[in-house]
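Why predict the complex rather than its parts? Because the way molecules touch one another can change local conformation, and only a joint prediction can capture that. The input here totals 938 residues.
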Amino acid sequence: MLLCAENLVKRYSGHRSFGEKHDVVALDDVSFSIAEGKTLAIAGPSGSGKSTLALCVACLERPTAGKILLQGREITGLPERDLRDVRPQVQIVFQDPALSLNPGFSANEIVAEPLRVSRKLTKTERFARGRKLLEFVGLSPRWENRKPAEFSGGQRQRLAIARALALEPKLLVLDEPFSALDCSIQAQIANLLLELQATLGLAYLFITHDLVMAAQMADEIAVMERGRIIEQGEREKILGQSTHDTTRKLLRSALPLNLSRGLKTS
Amino acid sequence: MNRKRAFTMLFLILAALHLIIACAGFFATYNPEEQNRELPFAPPMRLRFFDGQGYLHARPFAYPLRLREGSFDEYEEDRAVKLPLHFFVSGARYRLFGFLPMRLHLIGAEAQVHLAGTDGLGRDLFSRILFGGQISILAGLLATGLALFFGWCIGAAAGFYGGWIDEILMRCAELFLALPWLYLLFALRAFLPLTLSPLHAFFLVVGIIGAVGWARPARLVRGIVLSAKEREYVRAARGFGASPFYLLWRHILPQTRNILLTQAAILIPQYVLAEVTLSFLGLGVPEPTPSWGNLLSSSQQYRVLASYWWMLLPGFALVPFFLGYLGLASSLQEQGAPSNI
Amino acid sequence: MRYALRRLLHALLLLFGVSILTFLFAALTPGNYFDEMRLNPQISAETVKALRTQYGIDRPLPIRYAHWIISTLQGDLGFSFAYNLPVAPLLWVRARNTLLLTITATALAWLLALPIGIWSAEKQGHWPDRTISGVTGFLLGMPDVLLALGFLWLAVRSRFFPSGGMTSVDFDSLHFGGQLYDLFLHLVLPASVLVLSAFPLIVRHVRSAIADVLHCGFLRAAEAHGVPRRPLLYRYALRAAANPLISLFGFSVGALLSGSLLVEVIFGWPGLGPLLLEAILARDLFVVIGGVLASTIFLISGNFFADLLLYWADPRIRRAASFQAPEKTHA
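Output of the joint prediction:
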């Protein structure tokens, strides 16, 4: 098992409104695991805690309780210094590339930035790697000096993916990576992600509200509602034989696509 | 494009004005401290091209002034002598930029030609205005640098760390902003020694203006840092292990560039005026070192104000600088971040 | 009501903090202040010694501050060496005069700036707007020192306006109407300088605030309903733009107080400004502290008033202040 999450709880201390305190429980006893090279999709409506889960796995938020184990090693309570060794293994791609890329940086600066932070390479080496990363995600290295505003939405998301690959992670957390993209582009990016997975042996934690996308990308699906996982299992089981209300609602709201013609071949 | 061109033009004009002040020695006609007791409160000499006989001279000239018989402050022109203006003449010694010894002046004549008149001790006002500008403008620039530096550091710390650091720093800022700023300046000045050498006084003035002025820039920088901190690309950078220092340096602080520039354009004229006000009231740079403030202070006397209008000229010297910085601030505000009051 | 109390508490805390700040300035200055006083021939050596023991120079700072704040709250603001009078009554008279000048100038500045700013916003882009922008731009470039001296020069040359002071020599012998007119004549020039220095900035802000609001949908709807022009601009647009303008009001009070310091000195108006200046030059410690505190009280009061005004004008503030219901946040 690459990643194991056990009984994760995340509580945000509430706002003080004239003496009343309201805690928000974003994650309520969540457990799951991801094997190497496999994809787990977490699906659910808004407010179900999916994004919080993504942030916890990517070590950007600390769970209030519970454990996360990466290749058997517990990473939940680690101080920042030790986390620095862990981070390269788990990287995250955010929802809206217009927000997750610094508009003042050039494409190469963006994708090579993780290398700058880990400080192992010289500037020339970094930029050479950056160019390779751009090619890897299907962007021309000639565009390395362009700013994000000069790219289309799909290309920007490719930049975000390239950046996430810079440190050669084993697990990629994808927080609703298609929500900000046009439908036609979604398929392109989805295909790119699948290719990368096949080439690099990456594992994906794929967060989405679109069960159909989840079906096309994932081996296993977990359905979340209000901080809890209400259903979890193999793809076909969830899609075909679910009895939960939420799951069925999600299915109904997704685009009607013929599921047997999924892109994933396993 | 039009806006950008206006901005560049303004910037160049302002830069030219600063250059003139910086090279005060060259543009001045005489040594600002040279006294001439025979010509106290002489009015500005008129430059003429036509002489008494109606002949046109290519080179402008002036008639020297002498005291009218029987009076002690009325002057008449001595039409017998002509003083043509020469350019690039050798005159009083000065040090360009404070260290290059030179004698070259732009304008000069054989005898005393006072383009802006003289003051009570017969010192040439035109030269005093130029040298006074050095003191006042430099004070404004340095004080602004100081205030912005402190404001930037404090605002960034408050915005970035948040929590009780933020609370304390912002409460302090609020305290400083609760006092009308000139009163605050006076309060600080009050408790420091009154009689100081010009050099000490200069740095004291710069110091207190800078020490008082950090509060508003700090608030503005804090606001920017607070919002920049929450940006997704900052979060992304944390995701690949960036240290807080790296985040500040590469992602957050560059966002403060616009507000700092706009604040600089707003504060520089204010702080120049602060120095002028302090020196005007006798609390800033003392005699004999000229500053636009102490050049104006003799105008507080009824006699001087009523009869010697040219003593107000140093006040007018401020106007092009003010207008220039104002234009710069407006154009920066249009381009970039909204700058609050 | 609760909001008002909260803001009042805030204002008082601020005043308290400022008093600490001022006290610290005085106490931490390099060189012993009392040493300088000893050198001053006007103050006898016994007085210095008495003051030293009375104000406990050798005691630790917090105790000195406590002594001082207690006596201040009791109305004893110390003693002025230069005037040989207790500070409080001296301050009171001067403060009244400063208030007269500042309040007149503030009221005039705003009464002029509001209609002009609104008109300018209405005629955005056309010649009235351009002219007004030009004039305000020019005025903003004039340092108030120059304006004040210039006006004084006018007074001296024209001989119509008195060149300084607050009242004429024969003030007491005039009847009430005459006194009022005399006061008015003396007030005109210094107040005009203050108005001219403050009003351009206010006009610009009013213009931009109203211009922002004029584009809003609800205003267009009101226009379509047939609301005539003047109520539309003043009751609707101005109400909507009130928020930033009221904050500006608080700021303008501070700016005008600072400006009045200089103007009072130049015109010889017997307010806090000249008092403070003389006190600094005469090393009259308690007057300086008292003067600074007085001006701070005015500024804080002005801001408090602005806070109350904001509460009245902006329903969002009212709502935020009394919001009771719990808020549900999403993860």
